[in-house]
Write a structure and sequence with these properties.
transmembrane helix, Four Helix Bundle (Hemerythrin (Met), subunit A), Membr-assoc_MAPEG, elongated
């Protein structure tokens, strides 16, 4: 498996780290797990922002996975390039979550645009 494919797996698992922060920061009881969506919607502050980071991470995941798969199938870009862009995307998503939880809205937006740029780069890189 290529590094880019491993990055897809990392991007699939990353939202659960944000969910974990939202759920387990400050304690977690079994009753909260009976209605987790309701519980997450009632959070506030950093925990609520972690939940939002989780949601955004799931929203962007299909585009990233498709871009990696298409880049591999096209076979026109060097594997090292695909791997590097995929790794940059995953790192941007980690940074995005940190910015979201930290309530650094402007930095978060910049990091989000960088991540989207990585997805576009995977498509454009294979167009050649």
């Amino acid at each position: 498996m290529t590094l880019a494919y491993w990055c897809v797996l990392a991007a699939i698992l990353l939202p659960y780290a944000f969910t974990g922060f939202a759920k387990f920061q400050g304690g977690f009881g079994l009753n909260e797990n009976k209605n987790p969506r309701e519980f997450l919607e009632k959070l506030s502050g950093a925990r609520k922002r972690a939940h939002w980071a989780q949601q955004n991470s799931f929203e962007i995941l299909p585009g990233f996975a498709a871009a990696v798969i298409i880049a591999h199938l096209a076979g026109t870009a060097p594997q090292a390039t695909i791997d590097g862009i995929a790794l940059a995307f995953v790192l941007s998503r980690v940074l995005f979550g940190i910015c979201y939880i930290g309530d650094w809205a402007s930095a978060r937006s910049l990091v989000w645009f960088f991540g989207m740029g990585c997805i576009v780069a995977l498509f454009v890189g294979v167009a050649g």
